[in-house]
Every structure is written in C-alpha cells, then in structure tokens.
Amino acid sequence: MNSYLLISILRFTVLFLAQVWLFNNIEFWGFLNPFVYILYVLLYPVNANKSFLLISSFFMGLLMDMFFNTGGVHTTATLVLAYIRPTLFRFAYGVSYEYNTIKITDKFTSETFILVLLSVGIHHFILYNLEIFKIALLWDILWKSIANIVLTTTTVILILLFLKPTKR
Amino acid sequence: MQQVLNFLQKNSYKMLFFLLLAVAFRLTIQSHSLQQSVYVNSSNEVSGFVYEKTNNIKEYFALKKTNQALVVENQKLKELLFNKKDTLLKPDSFTFVGVKEYKVIAGKVIKNSFNKQQNYLTLKGGASQGVKTDMGVINQYGIVGKISKTSANYSTVTSILFTQEKTNAKLKNSNHFGSITWNGKNMGYVQLIELPRLATITKGDTIVTGGHSKIYPENIPIGTIDKVYIDRVTNYYTVDVRLFNDMSNLGNVYIIDNKSKTELQTLEQSLPNE
Fold it and tell me: Can you tell me the ipTM of this complex?
C-alpha cells in the first residue's frame, strides 16, 4: 500500500514530539530553539503526493502554533516552505531532481547543505518577520533570525548525518 | 462551465495552497491586531497534558530552590502576622466593607515563555479550579500577568512581557501613578509610562500596582526604577523598571480573583462616556 504515507505519518509524530519535548527546552542564550520539525518537509519523498505534503505541513505548523501560542506564525512559514520545496530542490540539485533520483539522506553533499540552509533561512525569515511584525525592531528580527538559522541548520545537518540511509 | 472546471482541476494544488495560506495569515493577523485573540492556544487539554508531563520532570531539578523560596515567603508572611497585628485588625479607611474582596487560587506555570513580543504562559489550573479570564496572576516576588483563556484544567496567561498590555502602577511612596508596558526588548525590564513630571523619583524607588487596576490588588510589587527618560513633547516621564521577578524562572503562582470586579465594571459602564 502507500508505504510512504505511513512513514510520513510516523515521521510527523516523531518530529512533533521531539520538537515539543526536547528541542523546545534548549533555549540557547535564553531565546534560541532549533526548529527541527521542518525536517518533515525536507524528508518528504520527492515523487509523493504534493497536496498531502501541503495539508500535513499546515497541520504541523498549526500544532507548533498551538504549543507556542504564536497565532499562525509557524503555520504560515511551514506552509510556504512546503509550497516552494520543489523550487528549492531544483535550485540545489539541478538536473538530477528531474529524474527523481535524489534522496537527501543518501550522502551528505554540498547540495544538501545548500538545500538545508536555504529552507531553514526562508522558514526562519518568514517566522521572525511575522512574529515580531514591527519595522522598528528590524535589527532584532535580523539578529534573531540569523542566530536561529545557524542553530537550526547545524542541528538539522547533525540529525541528517546520524540518519542511516535505507539500503535496499 | 467546462472551462471553469478545467481551470479548477489544473490549479487545484495552487488553490489549496492559497486557501491554507489565507487561514494561516488570518490566524497570524488576529494574534497581532486584537488582544487575547490567539484562537489556537495552549490552554487546551492536549498541549496542557504534554506540558504538565514535561514540567513534572523539570520540577525535580528545582525542588530545593522551590523549597527555599517557599520558606522565605513563609518567613515574610509570619513577620507580617506578628508585627502588624493591630493594623491588620483595623479596617482600612479607604476600603468599604464588601467592596474589595480577593480570593486566591494556587496555580503552577507548566510552560514559560519570555523571548517573544507577546509572551503567553500556560498554567495548571483552569475553570474547574475557579480560574476565569482577566484574573491577575502573581507570585511571591511580584506580578506575573493576567489570565487570557481557560479550559477545564489549564489556562493561558498574558505575561507582563507583552507589548500590547498596559497595567496601572504607582510609586510606592508617593501615589503618583502611570502605566506599565513592555517595549519588547529586555525581559528583565518593563517601562512605566505616563508618569507625571510632578512626581519626585530617584533610582531605586519601588513601583507597585495601583488601585485603579481591577485585575491586581493594590501594592503588589513590580520592580525598582532603573533609568528615567524625560519626554520633551508631553509632561510625562518614561521609566525603565527593573523587575523583581525573574521571568525566565517561574514556578508556583497565585491567581487573584477580584470578587467585586463585575460590580465595578457594571458601575463604570453605566457612567456616560466623556
């Protein structure tokens, strides 16, 4: 049957619980938490149903907003990331994306790094802009998003390195 | 008709995206435009349960500290009881009998937040314990915030670290009053605005809640004066107030139920508008 659907739901649950129980309590320098739940969007199979990704990303964001009391900030950022994901893959991997041959857990390459950095960057930039929502605090937005981009990117890459590629 | 259907079929993915995006934007903008309008909030049973379990583990690491804090508070209350016996028995000349009655409910912060512009805390303690919207939340050091939403067993609190919130406050020694608000920058400091220039203030003066607040009782400590700015346009001071509370470290709190609030509110609403 749809094994990817089952794996996605499992991944959704694991990442959600890890975010709420573990990564929310890191509070690096008092205000930085790595938002590793976006791995859900990154790890979703390339050739699988895109609408399911949109809807599940929406709910992942909504759950985060519910737990953080942030209105709809995480929902918006995650939804946009899920929507532009094909563009990011095409930008990072070039032509091999078209043949559906890549899998970001296979091997850690510079392409993977670019993909993770871009995705985290776009997600966090939307997130902090919408959360602070004040032009007077522009430096605050920039500083917070850059600091958190570094933290999340590092954590996501470490997790990717620890994940063993599935052998067939 | 066929063309419309074709169009819908071709663009269904895009339309799904924009539909979901519209919902997400609506939730975001609502949380910014109106106070206490986070519709998807953590006072529900699911997130309350998760946070409670997480907090149960965290609590073990702070047992000694909590104990110490409770001993200190007990000691202060005992001091108050032994030293001011006479004044406690005397009725306060400004308080009419039955007008000001406060009930205290114990609660516990199970999810803290202090690094956003609008900080919401989650409490264990909800409607079944008698917690309602707009009750004040304090702890042994000073004010914490006010109740925003409640469910059966949990509630969310808008912290004093909340950029759209205003609380009535006054100088402890002279009764000049202003409003406490937060500029969203440093979690150790809040701002006292609209304090008249007539007031004589010095660094280190204590700021307490004022009697105009229907949420907090009078004379709940807030913090001490740290920096004073003079507003050239208006005749008001803006003061940086250093909080007594460490907002990053909150545990047991007390929820204040002002019994006379509804009466005061209906009385004030019956007045003609200026």
Answer: 0.82
